[in-house]
Amino acid sequence: MSSIVIDRQATHWIITLNRPDKLNALSAGIVEELLQAFDDAEAARMPLVVLQGEGRCFSAGFDMSEVQTQSEGDLVLRFIRIETLLNRIASSPCFTVALAHGRNFGAGVDLVAACNLRVAAPGSTFRMPGLKFGLVLGSARFARIVGTREAQRILEMATTFDVERASANGFIELIAGPEEHAAVIEAAIERVNALPADSRALLRRALDTEQADTDLAALVRSASAPGLHKRIEAYLASQKKA
Predict the structure, then answer these.
(1) Where are the alpha helices (DSSP H) in 147-227?
(2) Which domain holds residue 148?
(3) CATH number reported for the structural domain that contains residue 41 in this entry
(4) Residue 95 — pLDDT band, cuts 50, 70, 90?
(5) What is the reported pLDDT for 239?
(6) Which pLDDT score is estimated for 54?
(7) Could you state one GO biological process linked to this protein (predicted)?
């Protein structure tokens, strides 16, 4: 059974993370499905792709359920594939929209950050705890969005920040609930169609701030440091005590 659902419309695709029982946590399988979906969208020359999550939240981030049964090498590869997905979305020729809601964590927040237009429902929250177990995933992209000092304030304490702070620091561009999503998508279609496809591509290249190789190297260095299992286990134990 697929972990994503794709609604293919003439003007846009809506990709729904569909593991509500796991809070749309990013398993190895769902990451590969998302990579394939973006390959397919680009092949179809789809101008607009929307990401959303089924259930209580957009995404709870990295799926920790199989950590104890996987080798450190397997875990490092999983993090690399997530970083590959983030880079794929951030560099996609498709205009991307994230529709976030609920309590979002880690790589789920990074998925939002990778999109061009970041929308969140009232009451949404975000937390990026990767540095608690020594992982640098999406940190630089987050800093490029909100600024270095704001990123440091949030990341060094793994602070949970609400949608109001996310709106103030620029992480979220628009606060809108599910009842407004149709209008958000219509506005995004109008935005995409404001320029010819070739001009949009020129603008994207001119304004590109992505540092895919640098971001991937930072992730690999942090994830491949010996003791990843112990660091994750210590973090999970600390969360149970909190």
Answers:
(1) 148-155, 163-168, 181-193, 197-207, 212-223
(2) 4-193
(3) 3.90.226.10
(4) very high
(5) 87
(6) 98
(7) fatty acid beta-oxidation
Length of the chain: 242
Does residue 47 lie within any of the structural domains? yes
Give start and end residues of each alpha helix (H) in the chain: 28-43, 72-90, 106-113, 139-146, 148-155, 163-168, 181-193, 197-207, 212-223, 228-241
What percentage of residues in the chain have a pLDDT greater than 90? 87
Nearest to 132 by CA among 10, 238, 6, 15: 238
Residue 207 lies in a domain: no
pLDDT band with cut points at 50, 70 and 90 for residue 1? confident
Burial of 242 (0-12, 13-18, 19+ CB in 10 A): exposed
Domains of the chain: total: 1
Q: In what order do the strands lie in the sheet with 125-127?
A: 103-105, 125-127, 161-162
The set of residues, in sequence order, having a beta carbon less than 8 Å from that of 20 and lying 6+ positions away, is 53, 54, 55, 56
Structural domain contains residue 232: no
**Per the structure block, which two tokens stand in for 128?**
């990026």
Neighbours of 230 (CB within 10 A): 11
